[in-house]
Amino acid sequence: MTADGFMLFDTAIGRCGIAWGARGIVGVQLPEVHEVETRARLLRRLPGAREASPPPDVRRALDSIVALLRGEASDCSTVTLDMERLPAFRRRVYETARSIPPGETLSYGELAARIGSPGAARAVGQALGQNPFAILVPCHRVLAADGKLGGFSANGGITTKLRLLSIEAAQASGPSYEGDGTLGFEPRAAVAHLRASDAALARVIDDVGPLDLALRKTPSIFAALAEAIVYQQLTGKAASTIFARVCALFPHRPGSPTAEQILRVSDEALRAAGLSRSKLLSLRDLARRDSAGQIPTLAQVHRMTDEEIVESLTEVRGIGRWTVEMLLIFRLGRADVLPTDDYGIRKGFGIAFKKRELPAPEEVEKRGERWKPYRTAASWYLWRVAERAKAALARPGSA
Questions:
Q1: End-to-end CA distance of the chain, in Å?
Q2: Phi and psi for 142 in degrees, rounded to 5?
Q3: Which of 234, 231, 208, 225 is nearest to 259 (CA)?
Q4: Residue 68 near residue 74 (C-beta atoms within 8 A)
Q5: Mean pLDDT of 207-212
Q6: Which domains does the chain have, with CATH numbers?
Q7: DSSP labels, 14-77
Q8: So what's the pLDDT on residue 174?
Q9: Residue 217: CB partners within 8 Å, gap ≥ 6?
Q10: Phi then psi for 15, rounded to 5 degrees?
Q11: pLDDT digits over 53-108, tens only?
Q12: Among residues 232, 298, 238, 293, which one has the least CA distance to residue 260?
């Protein structure tokens, strides 16, 4: 391919390059360590190109790339690319890769199947390794089997690939409706990041298998917290029985009661359903705050950080940080939650990292720095380790 012109431009990940010709974009260059190296690498691919101001269509393409790398919603799939001189197989690979939305991924094998060449995963990987249209052909959204990262030819290798995936995962989770039962991150991207950032945790992932974090839908933050209050310090069976009795006090409204209903029902009725006095007071406080507009709605939570949610909800009587962290993980599907005070997390951590004693929360927190921004996925794997150890001890013949 030949280029009429090129320019370098600033993005959130560094200074990139773009080149164009009469039939569209002919190349995009991701940042090297220094600007001079970025320019030199682009010119090695496209000798003879001259630095120039871009025409309007190229400027629009450039602006789309900048917005995407800034974490904004940006559709780069309609930018015109000059693929005329590329082999037909590579064109099919690139065109299909462009259909992968930001925040989602495919495996090389899945992409091969989509282009009608099942079994050609290796050839797909080779084609993506020669991708001249970085970002516009999002080869970073294609992973190896089982969520492993696979290769990435840009400067920084898989670190750059992970950064791109993290930017897009954050953007993709933004517009989603919190509490609708969908994760706020892409599981395969999370697993790939954990594998790359921690070899010991990678072995846990190999042993446990794919991430299978199931979320529970909730109609409101009030409903989720009301149920959490009832369930505190009880076995699942006992708690579900009591919660069903509380819900049965309001037969004309299926599911969880509203704050107004809780405020209208008598103490005697709630105590008769099985609530302790402490839980009754907590439920009343939650209902009063919700009626006063002090409990955020699902729409409001969407605009809040994890820490802001923790700070807001722990004002409620009987609601501590752990309870809110469970809501963030299992109701809202937040990506980066690590409940370091949780016994199961600490137990699983101790087993996974071969600790003689139960590790302190601070030790888990320190190790967890390398798992950001996917500490929720790491938490899920540590819980599985603890559960497996408990199950093994319960088997007949276990010491």
A1: 68
A2: -110, 125
A3: 225
A4: yes
A5: 94
A6: 88-170 (1.10.10.10), 221-330 (1.10.340.30), 343-394 (no CATH)
A7: EEEEEEEETTEEEEEE---SSHHHHHHHHHHHSTT-EE-PPPHHHHHHHHHHHHHHTT-----T
A8: 45
A9: 179, 180, 181, 331
A10: -90, 115
A11: 999 999 999 999 999 988 888 889 999 999 999 999 999 999 999 999 888 889 99
A12: 293
Instruction: Return the half-sphere exposure (C-beta side, CA atoms, 13 A cut-off) of residue 237.
Output: 0
383, two tokens: 């819980």
- Alpha-carbon distance of 361 to 369, in angstroms, equals 13
Report field, pTM of the whole predicted structure over 0.70: no
**Geometric angle at alpha carbon 64, from 62 and 65, rounded to 5°:** 65
Count of CB atoms situated within 10 Å of the CB of 249: 16
Q: 296: which 2 tokens?
A: 């955020």
Structure tokens at 399: 């010491």
What's the one-letter identity of residue 180? D
* Angle value at C-alpha 88, between 87 and 93, nearest 5 degrees: 100
Active site residues: 342
Q: Which segments of 174-305 does DSSP mark as H helices, in order?
A: 187-197, 199-208, 221-231, 236-248, 259-264, 267-272, 277-291, 298-302
